[in-house]
Amino acid sequence: MQENDNILNLLREKGAEASRRALRGVILQPGAIGDCVLTLPLAEFMKDRLRLGGVDILGHTEYIGILPGRTCVDGIRSIDSVDLHRLFVETDTFDLVDGDALINVFGDYAWIVTFLGEPDSNFEQNLIFTANCSTLGEVITLSIKPSKKSSALRRHSFGASATHITDFYIQQFIAQSGLSLEPWLVQKTKSLIKATKADINRGRELLKEINVDSSEKLVVIQPGSGGLHKCCHLGNFLVVAEELVSKDIQVIFLLGPAESLRDDATPAVLLRKIEAAGAKCLTDLSLTQVLELLSCADAFLGNDSGITHLAAALGVKTITVFGPTNPDLYSPIGPAVTVVASSDADFAKKPSASLQQELLNFF
Predict the structure, then answer these.
(1) Angle at CA 298, nearest 5°, toward 292 and 303?
(2) Beta strands of 29-148 (E only): which ranges?
């Protein structure tokens, strides 16, 4: 009898574990690539501590398409394919019908985390109603960034720098989950994204097309960012590039939409200056192509940008220049990240010889 009881208990445990593993979570992340990368530790935390069978991200496919197969994220869905605007109406006018598309979107998830809406808002209440139409899904609304007041209180209370944004997300989740979850601090030196062999091979092909030898040392520089106020002066990057090229280090400037908005050089002038520095240039690559290129790089240099977060998460040696944004809060996560913080009021307006030398010291 004792042996039979043990077998039954083992079967029950296995059944309970299988049921837990069948549960899934989803994160609504409407942000750009940097926001998506910084959401990955939260996804990992949910899978580990809630013992979920998978975590998906609902967001903009141009930013999240690279995640499955390279990260802890199991699946993605386009935010543009879901009528989320319906969830913003007044709760007393919100309605669903049998087989409603919104019910189908959220019906498979036991945990729904959203960076859209606010706590106790119409959006949150309507999302809870939608989730409970098919399952008893838990809905948690997270703030995308801490308020200035809460950041100041934390620094005053603990006498330390601001909590990193990835820890802030997880702390919010724990506080709102209603579960007795142990604190979790994100490993800031961990690679969050792993390039595949196919990524590396395609990256090498991309380099071959512009006559860059993938067997030689390569530094990728991205001089832009989503916010012009976060971009240090282009002259700093050009001086660094010229010095690296003089040491037989290959340099590629990565240019995209952000670079076309710069105040210190038009795209045509920028290209001429890059060529004068002896560097190569790649423009308007897809995010997948950027990942493939970075997977072949020995080092990366950039501002506080989404591509900088991507490079760091891939494990590439990353040197990033922070100006007005707080590196304690938003520094990239990766095994080889160096943050150079500038308090210069003319950070974006004129070159800095001291900054240039500081950057060169890391190569």
Answers:
(1) 80
(2) 54-59, 75-78, 111-114, 138-141
List where CATH 3.40.50.2000 sits in the chain. Answer: 197-360
**Where are any strands of DSSP class E within the chain?**
24-28, 54-59, 75-78, 111-114, 138-141, 218-222, 250-255, 280-283, 299-303, 317-322, 337-341
Phi and psi at residue 59, to the nearest 5°? -165, -160
Q: Note the CATH architecture for domain 197-360.
A: 3-Layer(aba) Sandwich (3.40)
Amino acid at the residue 347? F
Phi, psi of 14 (to 5 degrees): -65, -40
Q: How far apart are CA 297 and CA 89, in angstroms?
A: 47
Q: Give the residue, 86 or 343, on which the prediction is more confident.
A: 86
Beta bridge partners of 114: 28, 141
Query: Is residue 192 over pLDDT 60?
Result: yes
Across the beta sheet with 111-114, what order do the strands follow? 75-78, 54-59, 24-28, 111-114, 138-141
Q: Residue 158 — pLDDT band, cuts 50, 70, 90?
A: very low
| Lateral strand order in the sheet of 299-303 | 280-283, 250-255, 218-222, 299-303, 317-322, 337-341
In the predicted structure, residue 320 carries a pLDDT above the cut 60: yes
d(CA 192, CA 198): 18
What pLDDT, on a 0 to 100 scale, did the predictor assign at position 155? 42
pLDDT over 70 (residue 260): no
Joined tokens for residue 40: 């990955």
Residue 7's pLDDT is what?
54
Could you tell me the pTM of the whole model? 0.90
Read off the tokens for 307. Answer: 């591509």
Task: Name the segment(s) of the chain with CATH classification 3.40.50.720.
Answer: 2-177
Going by CATH, does the domain composed of 2-177 fall within 3.20.20.140?
Answer: no
The gap from C-alpha 226 to its chain's centroid, in whole angstroms, comes to 14
Whole-number Å distance between alpha carbons of 235 and 239: 6
Residue with tokens 């869905």: 77
pLDDT in tens, 57-73: 999 999 999 999 999 99
